Amino acid sequence: MKPQVGGWQLDIFGGDSPILITPPKPDPLPDPDRWESHVREKLAEAVVFFALDSRHSDNVPEALIDCAEMLHQRLCNRPVDKIDYYATLGWIMELWTGAIPYSIVCALGRVRPRAMQDAIRDVPLLNYDFNRLNRWCCGQLSLEAQWAV
């Protein structure tokens, strides 16, 4: 995998230097469709384990603790990664399921699913963020269309 010359850069003194194009590195893992079934099963078990594992021995899934921590950071006006935040918000409010649906993580962790959803709806900042996310994902009817008979 030698770099190839893609062009030449000339300077004002007449010198030239090559512009090298480095070939992309191959993907270290093959396509998941080519994995053997036992490898896929182990990966699925690992995903479930990481979603439901609790590092604090309090039987609350770590995924839910991470979600609560992210919402707390948003409420304290600390910087949060927007993509992670909106992905988490959409997962909690069940706009999408992710690898493991929110309701299943809550059921297996014996946590009431509506607890975090109600908190998002009750706190104005989080509710604003959710409504904004919902409009991005699902759109919004115009006022005329909402009241049409």
UniProtKB/TrEMBL annotation:
This is Uncharacterized protein. The lineage of its organism: Bacteria, Pseudomonadati, Pseudomonadota, Betaproteobacteria, Burkholderiales.
